[in-house]
Every structure is written in C-alpha cells, then in structure tokens.
Amino acid sequence: MGDNKSPSGSPKENPDNDSDANPLARDDSSLETIVRKFQDSMSLKKHKFWETQPVGQFKEVGDSSLPEGPIEPPTPLSEVKQEPYNLPSAYEWTTCDMDSEETCLEVYNLLKNNYVEDDENMFRFNYSKEFLRWALRPPSYFRSWHIGVRAKSSKKLVAFITGVPARIRVRDEVVRMAEINFLCVHKKLRSKRLAPVMIKEVTRRVHLENIWQAAYTAGVVLPTPITTCQYWHRSLNPKKLIDVGFSRLGARMTMSRTIKLYKLPDSPVTPGFRKMELRDVPAVTRLLRNYLSQFVVAPDFDEDDVEHWLLPSENVVDSYLVESPETHEITDFCSFYTLPSSILGNQTYSTLKAAYSYYNVSTKTPLLQLMNDALIVAKQKDYDVFNALDVMQNESFLKELKFGPGDGQLHYYLYNYRIRRELKPSELGLVLL
C-alpha cells in the first residue's frame, strides 16, 4: 500500500490560454488510459508483489460479473500471523510513538530527506511535525500502526509506514478501513526490497484489529486504481513560483501581467465568512455528512472526526464557514491543509508554502465564490500556491478561478475491496493526506 504522491507539478498551461479552443485537448485522456492499462497489463513483472494481494487485477478490468465488495473474506483472528515478518538481518522493527518529541523529530527528518519528490527532483514534501501528529493520531488510532525500521547497529530510523483507522462508505456500505500513508524508505536502501515487507507488516497489524480493508493513494499505476485524479495549481505568489521553477512565464506574458492576472481582493467578499470554531462542530458535521452522501466513495465522518480533521490548527488545517448574518445558520464550509515542499538547490528560497483543498460544502454561497474566498485567506496567510484535485465538485471552479492543470496525477486504491468500474474523479468524496 504505497503512496508516492507528487509534491508538485508545474502547471502545464497558462489559465489565460483558451484550452477549450482545442476540443481534442481533454479528450485523448480516455485513449491514454486504455493505452496505459494495456501497457501495465503487459509489464506484469512490474507488479509481482501486487499480484499476490487481494486487489483488483488488470486482467479483471471490464469484467462486470465480479461482485462488488470484499475480495477475500476475513480470516479468524486466531489465524492471523502473531509475530512480525522477517526483515533483512541488519534491520529491526520499531513502533514510532508520535507523542515523543524525539521520535517525531526522527520521523520528520526521515520524510524530509527521503519522501516524495517531483519527477525533476526540484521539490520534496516537507510535512511538519504538527502535521504528522495530526495526520497520525485521529480518534481511536492504533500506535502499533506507526511502524518504523531501524538499523540494528546505529539505531537510525531508515524506513516508515503508517495506518490510521477510518470509516469509509462505498455506495451504501460503511466499511472499517485503514488509511495507509507515509511509506518511505531511506534513499540508500531502495534496493533492499523493504517496501513489500513493510506493506505486509502493516497489513498484518491492521488484521490484528479485525480490519480487512484499506485505502491508499500513489503517484504510480498499480493494480488497479478506483479512480485517477489530476492535481491543479492556483498561483498565489506567481513571481516566486516562476523564480523557483514551479511554473513558467506564459508565452507573450510579462512578469507584471502575470502578477496582475493572479491578483486577488484583500479580504473575503462573502458576508458571514469566518473561521470555524469548536462550537461549530455539530453544524459542520451535518453539512458535511449531507454533502458527502452523494459520492460513491466518501468518509463516514461523525462529530469526533470533524473536530479532529477540520477544527483549525495553525499551519496544519484551516477551515472557514459562512454563517448567515440574518438567521445565524451555517450554510457553507471550506477547508485546506498546509503541506510545504522543500525547494531543492535554490539559492534564494528553501520552502514552497502550499495549501491543499480539503473538504468544501456550498449550499447558499456559490462554490466559485466560496473557493475564491478560500484563495483570498490563503493569500493573506502567505501561501505561494493553492492546490486542488479534480474530485467532488472541484472541476466546477478550477478553470474559472485560474487554476492550471499540473503534471501530477494521483491514483486512489482500495485494498481487499472491489469496485466494479473505475469511478470518475467527481464520484469520489475522499481526500487522503
């Protein structure tokens, strides 16, 4: 259950170019998908490990006779392997206590130096310690699912993988799952085949809690995505993004025209737009549950989940809502999380401050206006770029709000759960960190 997500992707085109003028521009994607699937089914050696796992296989794509739901039934708990899988002899398992400042720092440093980079090796995710604590300690998390590998001799942390519990609804079925994330192996140990052992070990520990399904994302194609999403990027600090090579100056564009193109108002325009507070949790939960019910795959959030995942936390997650000035009803909600990237090899800048669109619900305020207000507050808080996937209803505001498509794709996967046909990104109501 890997997750090599792309930390960035330079926008491919200027949003002021009229991409609609070329009707073929968007339409070859289905052909690309078919070709990619064919190539992947031909290069089966690549997926030796995944072919042994209960996941949808490429050879089953398009077979509508297969039932939806679990691929393998649960094993009796007494038959789940009780001792950890064997690591190469120089390494040992460790459970990472994210409450410990020292351990948290070790995990932070391992990820900061070895986690996901873009294809050109210009940017690398730089999850903060606060973010990691937030991401890894949701309600009723299991410490045993925060798994590290140490070198026996030096005790240095050299690899990491995590799971957190979640309830995810697939159509009408609410399924207890693990969300698997942060699979990271030190750059010098990439040839040691540690990843498959780590995936098997986290799977074993998840099974010990009587949970048999999982969700995960990756930037690479594995057997078989439930959907493939595209990252879109909205420049907030265009000069810096161009200076560090994240985006390029468009043809016939000057820097001053570009800065003007992306300029935003100084403050949100929607009356009653304010930061979410603890007292708003019940109202936000109702809004969110109602909204997420329309998607094929979405989290089943209760108030504890909403408090944990969406209550604002400095430099981790920001949430805003619209409270009607007349009725005091909470009608709309938007949120984004903070995930900086290290800028590799630039003399002037070391960090790219990125906001990632999280969960947004519009009932009274048009989504376009709500998201424009989200861009405005992100700009006020000095973010350089605002990223969004084309999931849920995001497609409806991306072009209009001057997001450009990046070159990063994100594939979503379910472990031991079959969905009969690949979903459109707009049918997915789940954002994994």
UniProtKB/TrEMBL annotation:
Composition-biased stretches (Polar residues): 1-11
Presence of the UniProt keyword Aminoacyl-tRNA synthetase in the record: no
Region (Disordered): 1-32, 60-81
Residue span(s) of domain Glycylpeptide N-tetradecanoyltransferase N-terminal: 70-229
Superkingdom as given in the UniProt entry: Eukaryota
InterPro entries in alphabetical order: Acyl_CoA_acyltransferase, NMT, NMT_C, NMT_CS, NMT_N
Catalytically driven reaction(s): N-terminal glycyl-[protein] + tetradecanoyl-CoA = N-tetradecanoylglycyl-[protein] + CoA + H(+)
Name the record gives this protein: Glycylpeptide N-tetradecanoyltransferase
Biological source species: Quercus lobata (Valley oak)
